[in-house]
């Protein structure tokens, strides 16, 4: 990266146009605020700034210029997808990616079986292997 150039926070997100997520599970959290750009929304989500939860996605209302930060994404149980022409959905790639990059130390996806189809050992289990 060149001197004085900042990395665009949107690079960490997968965009789906004209889609919004509706929480069916009432325990899932959402916070909203007026912001002018999707990049501002992305920065806040990436840093979890001013949020009481880990931001996994945000929806940006292009009409009202309102950002909706979400504690969930499209893969979360208790969430429904809804077509809406006013919104664009941005999901953190780390949470929707189905592949492991490198050793997988930062992997946050949903894959729980090995390449050969064997169920992965739970993190809280010491059987069959110790950590």
Automatic annotation (TrEMBL):
Residues 98-131 form the Kringle domain. Residues 5-94 form the Apple domain. PROSITE patterns: KRINGLE_2 (PS50070), PAN (PS50948). Pfam families: Kringle, PAN_1. CDD domains: PAN_AP_HGF. GO terms for molecular function: endopeptidase activity; signaling receptor binding. One of its GO terms (cellular component) is extracellular space. The keyword Calcium does not apply. Keywords: Disulfide bond, Kringle. SMART domains: PAN_AP. This is HGF factor. The gene is Hgf.
